[in-house]
Write a structure and sequence with these properties.
Layout lengths: L6 H26 L6 H22 L6 H25 L4
Helix pairs in contact: 1-2, 2-3
Length: 95
């Protein structure tokens, strides 16, 4: 699916995605405070969660899907990754 896009557009969308992840991570850092991972940590978790979600959808979701649906599922999985890691950190956080 993604291989039919030209390389320049792939690089452009990756950079735009990183900028959007930074803005969202900055907002999430202000909301979560000390429980979060910092701006760049949140951004890394969101980007890695998005890439893992894209891979999981491409690998294991066998129903026909549109680009919009796979993008939405990947974004949801990236936020679920951040939520899981924050809850996991909070469970083992010592005061």
């Amino acid at each position: 699916m993604a291989l039919s896009i030209a390389t320049q557009w792939m690089i452009f969308f990756f950079i735009v995605g990183l900028m959007a992840a930074y803005i969202v991570a900055y907002a999430m850092d202000n909301v979560m405070g000390r429980v979060g991972f910092g701006v760049f940590g949140n951004m890394a978790v969101l980007v890695i969660g998005y890439l893992a979600g894209s891979w999981l959808i491409d690998r294991f979701y066998h129903m026909p899907t549109t680009l919009e649906k796979s993008l939405l599922l990947s974004i949801v999985l990236s936020f679920l990754t951040l939520l899981f890691l924050v809850v996991f950190k909070r469970l083992f956080w010592r005061h």
